[in-house]
Structure formats: structure tokens, C-alpha cells
Amino acid sequence: MRDTLAQPRLTDSNEFQPLLDSRLGKAVRAALFGTALGLASVPMVVIAEPAGSASQQYNIPAGSLDEVLNQFARQAGITLSSTPQMTQGAQSPGLQGSYATDQALRQLLNGTGLEAVSQDGTSYVLHAAPQDAALALPTTDVRGFALGNALGSMEGYNATHSQIATKTSTALLETSQSVSVVTRQQMDDQGAQTVSQTMRYTPGVLTNPYGATHRYDYVAMRGFNDGSVDNIYIDGLKSMGDSGTFSTMQIDPYFLERVDILKGPSSVLYGRSSPGGLVALTTKKPLYETFRQVQATVGSQGQRGVGFDFSGPLDDDKRIAYRLTGLTHQSDTQFDHNEEKRYALAPTLSIDFTEDTSLTLQAYLQNDPEGGYHAGVPADGALHKRNGQRISEHFFEGEPGIDSYERNQQSFGYQFEHRFNDVFTARQNFRYLDSTVKMDQVYAWGYESPTSNKLNRYYTGADEKLHSYIIDNMLQAEYFTGAAKHTTLVGLDYQRRKTVVDWSSGGLASIDAFNPQYGNSQITYYAPTSYTRRLQQTGIYAQDLIELDKWRFSLGLRQDWVKTSDENRIAEPTRPLGTKISDDRTKLTGRAGVLYLFDNGIAPYLSYSESFNPNSYADAAGNPLAPTEGTQWEAGIKYQPPGTDNLFTASVFRIEQENLATKQPQDDFYYPVGQVRSQGLELEAHMQLSENLKVLGSYTFTDIEYSKTMPSTLAGSTLDNKGNSPTQAPKHMASLWADYNFRQGVLDGVRVGGGVRYVGYSWVDAENTMKVPSYTLFDASVGYDLGKVGLKGVDVRLNANNLTNESYIASCASLNYCYMGEERNVSATVSYQF
């Protein structure tokens, strides 16, 4: 949606007891601020024997070296520390037979050039001969394979593990839900400039539902797009912006190590969420080897920017490490009279107090003095000609002297971890966010008359202050009951958000959509509004991951208490000053999955999951709308050829979401539209076909429709859209990307990449009276390692997105709001690693 928001009003509800104010609720909140969870009520376990000289039987299949070492560390009951760079690309024949720990490690590392060194017989560190890493991408140290929370390895475009579906490190092949990973190298090769753009080659994800705007990271998944960015998570915690306002947190992709995408409902671990899925961002963490990089970028639309990324240990024992990443960026946009500016800095410090206890302190500071463009234009003139003319893709309907968007955000947090023994590990993640947003926007809404070329214009202003924090406590236990291995996770999380908003609105002179003349900036102001919005969520959850021979089972359950309130700060005709309206909700959600792992690398699975999301929106009468609730059944097959990290996934799904709400852009209220059903097929392939060639492929089929509607009278007509498809939900999407790195001959050091993205037609309106045409876009990349000609550590890269400069409409949210697609963007980046 454009930046013209409804002003949600919630009414008092006596239907639910205010649990958060009860003694139980207070006790739960107090427990959240401990540094670790209590150990009571833990199931009886069989503790793994400590590592030593005694022999132990092993039957570990062949695979990538890091995965084999991971399995060995778990079975041997040791801590094994390494970096992904040491084991990157290495394969292992596995380990079969009876070995002492030291003997087994020598066998596993034979021929790799690595050795494992220990001082106490239980904690080992891998050492490798020095290597020339001038152009290597940095990756965070993998500490403690046996802790169960390492993210495995990333090589090229392939990742082996993810935490997004289980909050523990789980192999992608063994996860009974659809998970995609975008690596740092993929982001760089494809020239992603926003978090949304990093996922352009991921199935099931529409990354540009609102066209060429970069202000927010909208992501529509499996056909669901509610116009918010509530499905973005950062380092395991919800981003905590307020999607009912303009205060939404955004992070620059330069600061990310990877992006994990989970398709389908996920409330059992994260609480309130969208049924389409969620996106987890992992930021760059300190490295325990020295890394220094600077880069400069220039490009079309006046793009220019500079970034730096420094990291390394601060002590001789390599127990304290830092990372300092910074970026400055400035660019025009494809829309007249608009530009983007950003200054960001991320200092991070990691401390390994012991082999079992670590703390990472994080901060992220970002100032966006200019937020670019965010609006739409009527379908009449955008999709087809009006009075013989078509609206330019550069058209700006606002006023140059009025339009502005400034966002300041600062977040501070930490990630703490302590391993008590071979069974129990406690983790606590915390983040505080402070944000201010000031905005002035002039936007268009409809033509003056059926034959006029002039668009009516309105003004929206906002002055907002947001404060929020979120904390997540987890206790993980790894143990055996008979032949079954369990990884049990129990947790308590709490989040709190307060947003103070002052909104103004008004009207001003119309503008010609085909020959705009600016300068008519006189605003007729309407009555202002001012609110204090609050949200609290407390969740208790439990999950058990079970390995029984080749079977993998997952079970999860969560109870949430959510409280929202809305207090007006100025008197209104229908609400006296200080009127406070609150709404309390409770919800129990669950998840279950089963997967079978064949020896040949094929893994079929079946899963069920649920989601819920309390509505902060009100209907025309001011009554709160019921929370949306989603359920999903998903079945699929994953295939990972033995000895490789290549992964092929085919999944089918069916999602049903109840209590969906929508609005017309000119209204300040929402109306219920009943139930939506989405079902479809997704195919994905991540392939390292040779040392030189990497390939990504995806296909998406989404069949989404209003399966149950609640007829509503709007604008003098009765709407009943049962059987119709929602807007911004293309039925077909497909993509293919390939990258080839020449490593010999006259082209040694050259990298070339190219991709194609297809997005099928979608509907302009929920009544399905008009289609948004399909479009196909081409991307390309060329890079060269200048170290081949004596400039060691210097690399250049040229990226072109929408190479053919295709003119298209990304989507439409209604007949009067269509969004221009992004035109060709070309950028050149020079980086120096030293």
C-alpha cells in the first residue's frame, strides 16, 4: 500500500480476561529477564559420555567435511571449533568403526591439511596452513559444533543448515518445511540493493508488490500480502517496527551475512506472524581472523556510495573479536524530484568467556534523510491509455517543496549463550529499538471527472516516535531415550512496543497526470489526529526434534498472550481526550512434521503448521476486527546428492486464512473479507555443477482465492468476491540464474552471470475485472579479480538489473493504485580486501 494509512481504532473487549495483568502474567514477564532459563521439569535424559581415550562405535555417512565433523562432535560429546573457510568445499568419506576421539579425528582429517588440537581432551580447535584469502568472502566463526546452534557452512550459493524453522541448527535436507537460503555471495553477484531484492530468485516470494519503491522491504509470500512488513526478523528476533504506522525498521543488505526464508505459518516459535511465511536476516558477526574490506559503488540514477567492513580478534588468545561495518549511499530515483540517502553503522563485539560461554554485543545505527518515492497511479493511464496518453514511469504526482521522508533508527542488543554440559545449552537474545519518522507526502487519488486528465491530490503528514524491545530466552537439551535422539527446546519470549503518532492531512490542487505542473502547494488542512499505540506479547513455547534411525519428527506447541491499546492524545468529535481502547487476545498454536531420510539423499516430508496475527485495525464503526488465523498442510520431497551441498526441493501446500481484512486506499477503516485459501506448487534448485559453475532455478504455481466472503457494502455497491483471486498474487512465477567463474586461460579471473525472472499476470482488483499483464526481466553481472594483473585484493563487478529496460506494472492493489515497475539499473562496484 502507499503511505496513506488507516487510523486503527480498537474497542474495549470483556471477552478475554487480561492475563498479562494477572499474577501469572507478571511472574512470566519477570522470568524473562533472567540470564538463563531454569532447569526444572526437564525430561529424564541419557547424558553422552565425556570424550576421552575410550573407543566408541561410529557410523557416520560420507558427506561434506563440516557436516561429518558436526555429526562426529555430537556423537563424541566434544566441542569442535573451526571456521567455514577451513572446511569449505571439502568432502569426507565418513567414519565407520570403533575409534578413540583423537584417533577418529586423525582419520577424519587425513589428507585435508587440517589438524585438531586440544588441551583438555574435550575441546578441540582446527588449525590449517595459511591460505591466500584476498578475495574470500568473510563468514562468521562457527563455534561449538556440539552446541547445536551453528549454521553449518555456506559455499557459493549453497547452505547446509538453517535455524529459521526450528530455532536450532537443522540441516535443510532434514527440515520438514520449505526453507530457502540466500547467501552473501548470491547477494553480491546479483547486485541486491534492498532486502527484498535479495529474494528475487526465491520461489513463492513476490519481492516487488509495490514496484520501484525502496522505502520498505515488502515481501508477499505464497499469495499473501497484507501491506505490512511484519514478516521480517533480524538475528532471530522480530524487527519490531509498527506496520500500522510509517515507523517500520529497515536494514541495508550490505550488513547481512545471509537471508533465510521460511514458507508457511510459523507462530509456534515466533508468535504473531503472517501465514505466508517469514524472512530471517542474519547480520555480519565478528571474525576471529583479520578481515578488512572497503568498496565504492557508482551507477545509474546518480547512484554513489562507499562501504567498509573491518573485523578481527582483539587479543592474542582470540577470545574477543570485533566487527565494524559502515555504509553511506545516495541516489536519485526513477521518479522525478525524489532521491534516497542513507548513512549506517554497525559495531559488533563478541566475547568468548570460556569454551562454553559467549556473548555478542550488537548495535545498528541508521539515518535515512531521504526515503525516496512511495505511491501509485490509476490503472486508467498506467495499464492502458487514457485520452490517448499513458502515464510516464517517471511521473511524480506530489509537490517537490513538500514531499519528504526522514527516518532515524538505532537498535542495541546482544546474543548470549552458555553450555552447561553435553546436554543443556541456554541462549538469550535481546534487542531494543528506537526510531523516529517525519514525513510529508502529497499523493493522488482518482481523476477529477470521467474525462479529465487531472488527478485529485491529498496530503498526509506524520511525526512518529517508536520505542520497542524484545527478548527471547531458550533452553536446549540434547539427549537420548532409547534409540531416539531428542533436541528439545523450551522458551519464553516477551516483546513490548510503544508508538506515539501525530498525523495531519489535507487537500490541495489537482495535477495533470500527463503534463504535470508544480507549484500549487497550498494545503487545506483537515482535523489532525494523535495516538499512543501500545503492544505487548508474551509467549511460552516448546519443541521436540526427534531422530529415530532415518526418521525425523518435529513437534511444537506455543501459548501467546497479546495486548494492544490505542489512546488518543487530542480530543476528537467521537472520542474525548485520553480515551484508551484496548484489546486482549490469547492463542494456542502448534506445528508437527515428519521426514524420512533415505541413504540416496531423497527425503520426503509432511508437515502441519499454524499462525495467528492480532488485528490492530477497526471497521467503519470503530469495532476491532478478529485476529487472522492460518493453517497449512505441506508435503514435499528434498534431494541432496550424497557428497554434495546441492539441494533440490519440490513442495505442495494448502493454506487457509480466516478473518482477513482489507481496505480501500481512500478510507481510514478496514472491512472483513472472510477466508482465503492458497494452494500451489514450488520447485527450487541450488546447484554447484562444477568448481566454476553455480546455478539457481525456481518455479512457483499459486492458486489463491476468496473461499468464504463476508459481503460488505462499500461505495454504494455490495462486494462478494467468493471464488475470485486477491490482488498482487500472480499465479505463475519462474526464475533462472547462472554464474560462471573462469579459473584458467586468457579469461582467468573473469566472472559472468545472468538471470531471467518471469512474473505471470495478476488481478487489478478483487472483483477480477482487469488483469495486470505478465512480464519478463533479465539481469546480468560481470566481475574481474584484478589480482590476476598484480592488484592483489582488488575486485570489480558490474551489475545490470532489468537489462532490457522493460516497462511494466509490478502490480495493482485496486483500480486506482497501480505501481510502476523498476526500470533498468546499472551499478559498478570496486572492492579492496587487505
Automatic annotation (TrEMBL):
Q: Which UniProt keywords apply?
A: Cell outer membrane, Ion transport, Iron, Iron transport, Membrane, Receptor, Signal, TonB box, Transmembrane, Transmembrane beta strand, Transport
Secretin/TonB short N-terminal domain boundaries = 78-129
For whether the record's keyword set contains Transmembrane, the answer is yes
Report the subcellular localization.
Answer: Cell outer membrane
What is the topology of this protein in the membrane according to its UniProt annotation?
Answer: Multi-pass membrane protein
Q: Does the keyword Plastid apply?
A: no
Superkingdom per UniProt: Bacteria
Q: What is its main location?
A: membrane
Motif TonB C-terminal box boundaries:
817-834
What the entry lists under InterPro entries is as follows:
Beta-barrel_TonB (IPR000531), Beta-barrel_TonB_sf (IPR036942), Plug_dom (IPR012910), Plug_dom_sf (IPR037066), Secretin/TonB_short_N (IPR011662), TonB-dep_rcpt-like (IPR039426), TonB_rcpt_CS (IPR010917), TonB_sidphr_rcpt (IPR010105)
What's this protein's family per the entry? Belongs to the TonB-dependent receptor family.
What name has this protein been given in UniProt? TonB-dependent siderophore receptor
Q: What is the lineage of its organism?
A: Bacteria, Pseudomonadati, Pseudomonadota, Gammaproteobacteria, Pseudomonadales
